[in-house]
């Protein structure tokens, strides 16, 4: 084993530790590879260090410059797919499942890959279930595939002990598939982010997630509609199940974009103790405000949104009474931003928002309303 391979093996064995990477950078500098050493140090710095905005611009510009010149030399050689660098090495790989199976050993020994996105994986699940590299994965993504009824094939209880983030987007997963997923969740004690966007599980699916004790560690839950028909979306009934959950009560981020929770669902959500840790809430395009301003009153009165930093209300309806409440919302004093782009706004509503003392915290479409 060469010295370089020795260092790389240490980095792969401890993917979350910067020290082996920085030791490797020192060795690279000693043998004259100053450029690679600089890149590793800068990427570690960009992730870990408290940089000023000006320092971050300078560091990230230099990182882009180095990658433009040397990406091919530093990437995993001889494979297809998209490779992304973090902390000096390829940590993310987007690749076809058949190519991943072909090159898995080569990938495993050449880079600390801990984030993996696989495409066209449905017909290769049995083979994937025997891949050693999965034991070190922190993030796994299956997008635009056909995994309905097949989750147990790939998600063996012992296969993903380090998994923090799981994305199963647009995979035709129904409520019964989410029931399977929740039964497997105890195998992922470190899972803190789950993205199930674009799957037709409807209210029953959200109720199933809400009852899953194995999902207690979740902090981010992304459930965008991504264009689902009305019947397959989440409505006020699904939100009611979430607000009663004893498992999903520590969420920092909740994304319900593009569903149909309506005014009733929104009110139930913001009046729930399960919203008390939320920092980011996305309820864009959810039929909110179509039957009056009461939803805004519930928002203003809620004692559970004191940690909220971002609220996305885009593509809903903001009538003048709702706008009048919004501009006085106490959470604006704490710096919360509100996305109102694409909303149905009367001239009076727009004027109230434009004249607000917190105008800079409202994201609005440019120009006057039509």
UniProtKB/TrEMBL annotation:
Molecular function GO labels:
GTPase activator activity; small GTPase binding
Swiss-Prot/TrEMBL GO biological process terms: nucleocytoplasmic transport
Xref: SUPFAM superfamilies: RNI-like
Pfam families, sorted: LRR_6
GO CC annotation terms, alphabetical: cytosol; perinuclear region of cytoplasm
Q: Which domain of life is it from?
A: Bacteria
The UniProt entry, under InterPro entries, shows: CHP02996_rpt-companion-dom, Leu-rich_rpt, LRR_dom_sf, RanGap
**What name is this protein filed under?**
TIGR02996 domain-containing protein
- Annotated source species: Limnoglobus roseus
Its lineage opens with: Bacteria, Pseudomonadati, Planctomycetota, Planctomycetia, Gemmatales
